[in-house]
Amino acid sequence: MGFLAALYHMLNHAFFKGLLFLGAGSVIGRTGTRDLNLMGGLSRRMPWTALTFLVGALAVTAIPPLNGFVSEWFTYQALLNAAGSDLFALRVFAPLFAVSLALAGAFAVMVYVKAYGGAFAGPARSEKARFAKDPSAASVVSLVYLALGTIVLGLGAPWIAPRIAAVAADFAKQPLIAVSAGWTILPGNPLVSIVSTPLVAILALGLLIVPVVVVAAYGGWRASRRSNVEPWSNGYGYAAVMSVRASSFDQPVKVSFRPLYWVRTLVERPYRAAANFYNAAVESVRRAEPVVENAVTRPTLKLVETAGQWIQTLQMGDIRLYCLYIIITLAILLVVLFGGSGS
């Protein structure tokens, strides 16, 4: 089951990660910036990029019924099965890995809500974002192809998973288990858990129809008409910078995880023209300091590098020096083995 999940997830990553990288490259190329705070409103100007990027974002965050959900579901089932193993290590660490995977999934949702909302939603916050457009036709075709592959690998899981399971069983030299039945996928035993991605898709489409039915029943299409007016901004003139930006969206996460990532202030002083005698403008930039990396990872890496350099000095390439090492080692072994017997 675990090998099936790994193979399926690797195949899924090839599609939705490629889709996301291509979509991000299209956005950066058209806007000329990587700063989400300077984007916004791209869904109206780059509709194909926005739609396909949304598919990739939903897949990478394991939202059903797309392919990322299927492979993560198999991963959870493998971890839950491992938790019932006779091995003590699996009983301890499998639930911890499942919880860690769930936590990572929650963070992934926040990350891609920030990425999609900051780039495609709201008003345009720069001139280049205001006049951006979809990339070339070849790029759009590539985006659509990857998005369709992402959808097919999710909706077609009941028919694709058995073929991947056969490869996994043959490679691992294990008996083949049932991973699908009809329109559902299952972890070998249908009494444990089942899910149907086609049925989830049908239910999702049904939920999208509900607002249309409600509007038609309580006022017709006139009730859904929209009035274009300026947003209220407490009496001030509205500006695009007043909308929720990417940096303000993740502020609660920065505050909550401040003990793990210290936030320090870097001060930049871009001086104005020499004729201007005003003080230099000061811009505060926030940077996260990884505490665990500075306290554990980097010192450990430095220790390994130092030990490697010291060991490298012993290997000079001189055969006579190697013979000397052998003689010294034999002498030490003789002293250890027979030194105590003489007394």
User: Per DSSP, what share of the residues sits in E-state strands of 2 or more residues?
Assistant: 5-15%
Question: Structural class given helices, strands, pairing?
Answer: mainly alpha
- Major β-sheet annotation: 2 strands, antiparallel
Weakly predicted, low-confidence segments: 277-285
How many helix segments?
13
Instruction: Report the C-alpha radius of gyration, rounded.
Output: 29 Å
- What is the subunit organization of this protein? single chain
Average per-residue pLDDT, rounded, comes to 80
Strand order of the largest sheet: 1-2
Q: Could you give the distance between the termini?
A: 62 Å
Shape: extended
Helix content: 55-70%
Order of helices and strands: HHHHHHHHEEHHHEEHH
Please count the beta strands (DSSP E, at least 2 residues each).
4
Notes on the structure:
This protein has 343 residues and is mainly alpha-helical. Among the domains are: 2-178, no CATH class; 297-342. It contains 13 helices and 4 strands. The strands form 2 sheets. Strands 1-2 form a two-stranded antiparallel ribbon. It has a two-stranded antiparallel sheet with strand order 3-4. Strand 1 (180-181) and strand 2 (184-185) form a beta hairpin. The chain is extended, with a radius of gyration of 29 Å. Mean pLDDT is 80; it is low at 277-285.
